[in-house]
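Escalation from tier 1.

The customer reports that the assembly of two entities below gives different structure tokens on two consecutive runs. Tier 1 could not reproduce it. I'm attaching the input and our single run for tier 2 to review.
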Amino acid sequence: MTNFIDYLLGGFSSGAVIALMALALVLVWRSTRMVNFAQVGQAMFTTYIALTVLQSTGNWLLALVAAFGAGLVLGVLVFFLVIRPVKNSDTTGAIIATFGVLISLQAAAGMIWGGDPEGFIPPVSNAGLEFAGRIWPVSWYDILVWSVTAVLVVGLTLLFTRTSLGLSMRASAFNPEVARLSGVRVNRMLITGWAIAGATGAVGGVLIAPVSTISPNSFDILLVFAFTAAVIGGLDSLIGAVTFGIGTGLVISLVSGYTDASNAPVVALVLLAVNLLVKPDGVFSHHGARSV
Amino acid sequence: MNTVSRVKNLRTFPGNRILWHAVIVGVVWLLLLLLNNNIDPLYSSYLALVAMYATAMFGMTILVGLSGQVSLGNGALMAVGGYVFALTSMNWQTVPIFGWPWNAVWSMVFAGLGGILIGGVVGGLAARLKGPYLAGLTLGLAVGVPAITNRFPSLLGGENGLMLTVPYPQGGYAAAAAAEATDTIDPVAEPGLDPTIAPVEDQYAELDLSGFDQGVDPNAATSAEDMLTEGDLLTTEDLTNGNDLTLESTDPAADPSIEPGIEPGIEPSIDVAADPTGVTDSFDVGFILERWQASMAIAVACLVAFAAMNLIRGRQGRVWKAVRDDPIAAAVVGISPANSKVSAFVVSSLFAALAGAVFAQILSFVGPGAFGLGLSLSLLVGIVLGGRASLLGAILGALIIVWLPELVDGLAGNRGWPEQITNNAPNLLYGLLVVAVVLAAPGGITGTVRSWVDKSRGNSRSPLS
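Tier 1 run:
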């Protein structure tokens, strides 16, 4: 039983990061109705930028801000250079184009920073805290991860529910034509969606980097987990992405703890397949069933 | 006029179509075998890789191009074929079935069956999914299936993979020492005339290469060579080719020493799959294993191409295209969209599994690193660059995938670029090219050329049709 609790607690950190990545996927889906498979590539790239900032200044907060800014810029760049030109052609092409971006970003990161995994020094201790006579699998760094994630999720929720920008974004996601007729600048909302998604993913990347290592390919598996969480959550639900992001983190932590860490991708695959078979539109989704 | 239009519009004469396809494939097969016998063995190993990639990409043509399902899982399907081949050829090699000793052909049949089985399962799931959902699921497949090998380390070799026992034909491309061997049937020239029979049946001897370690163990080369001193039919070129190579190696594009060796599991980039040097380094250049591997890969690729041509240009091809273009309209005229999607997946999976079995023989190795996400992505890159909806596009894509890293290496070798740049340059090129092609020329090379031709003739049609 103590094992079970330990694994659960350990899963919250990775769950929080998966939730952020899933949020990024959902934000993109809400703005352009497509899955950005380059999302973790963008996060990897901005995390390398954060690493460079951290190594030169030693200031973790500055690194986080740098990644956040780089994420915004990269999201807008990808949208302008790749997504907007391809958007009106076939959906197959759009999916393939995001993979092209992923391959390019990984190769570019390899060129600039090399392929060797690099460590990312956490700002606070990564060691388990001692409480009530035993060491728990929760560190100050985990608490920091939870806090940053919570701040980001609350901020996004407030943005979408309490501001006119959020209302416009929701309107253009819900029905672009009606939104345009009501005076919403839909294109700007799309760009905003991609920018926020890029920044959210970037924060997720900086948060996960000290726990794992960072290399051009190290976030590939995160894409699978985040996609699983986003799809189970319904792909257009922020709540769903956060809930199932954390849920996926917990399941993976339990599976890794009780069996072996190498089972995690297989479990994610099974979760995804079962969900797509049983409830393909996701748990938190609002729209009706597909015809064909 | 009549005969001309017959040749031009094959699809209007279904009775002759299969015959025509057989003739085309047979001629190409013969030409490729001639090419294989007359080029440097080093180039033969590239030829083998191109044929292997082409085999897998024919499946991608059907799946992505005709059926419109974006799959990133074909690398994982290749892994299934490769592992089935490895396990059957390693564990069951002494059991004769219908009089045949257990050899590579039987293992490939089992690899194909494994591919069909997995294709049916994945296809059944995939038929319910659209665009990004399917891409995400197959992405999970590409990441998850290689991870399964870690689950069963004793059976599947874990992260280190399995070293294969490569069966090779007794009378085939063996070493130079047996140059005196004469007057048996040439196993190479025959099958080119009859494309329905595999050229490599029934004449295998078991060659144990399990001792050699992917370009690391220098002793393995000698042991492999020692065992290859019987029966040889291709006598004339053997020694001369070995000598030629020293001259050829001034060409930087052909120099295998520039490339890093294969490191399964460590470097999951596209290069890993395309890198043939793990094989070529391990053998003395006078040894013609490369030529045998190329002839085997060509045989499989030609058979698969023949099947794919008949499928694509026949009824099934039209069904796939109809469902891709408009599933509702297809359903209205009595086509089941689900069945169409599943069948595309099964066929593509069969081709991928056969390619995986060929890959296993080329590498004499199967491991999770060789079949990682990079391989799946490179298949997608190749098919998009070559042309999504045509078999010729698949062949061009295979050429690009194998040739581009060599080109970059050649350029880098002269200029002394740092390894960090050189290793990643092909992938950067692939990524940028894919984006550029999707944006500017969605039909890839073949689609674009065809639309030019159509335009000059005054026709118009979609570059993806």
